[in-house]
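Q: May I have one protein plus its fold?
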Amino acid sequence: MIGLLDSPTNGQVLIDGINTTKLGDNKISSFRNKKLGFIFQFSNLLSDLSVLENILLPRQIAGTNFTSEKDAIDLLKAVGLEDQIYKRANKISGGQAQRVAIARGLINKPSIVLADEPTGNLDSVTSDTIVQLMKSMARKLNQTFIVVTHDREHFGDVDRIITIKDGRAFEGEQPSAMEITV
């Protein structure tokens, strides 16, 4: 629901003070493109586009192409792929594709970034680099990163941890025995 891909049966989803449940489909699409960044577990790159074109796609959809190429190249440098700019997406490795997907999720400088296993296809050194990039972006741009991961140790100190166990959410890493007693 935070990604505005589903609507609540009751209640509201407020993002940046806007009640998104009142928005129509076109406004939701525009809002999602401008305010939300998505980093999927699998990169979902368009194979016939270059690395640069894949990253710029959200900006093109939003109609905000000014200074886009410089921003995209800066993000590619941050994820260690400045030498892959013009390669087709189907010509790079899985780990490289994941880093391109991360750059694409950050290009519009969204308020909230939803990341599903963003480091799942990366080696430990690259994972640490990506986590540091996300933390840096969060501080610098006042972004919120909501990360789903099975690889908790890579993320170190974070502001808040919510653990989901057996369909229930708990504050912190481990629910106490009392919390999970049936």
The chain has one domain: 14-150.
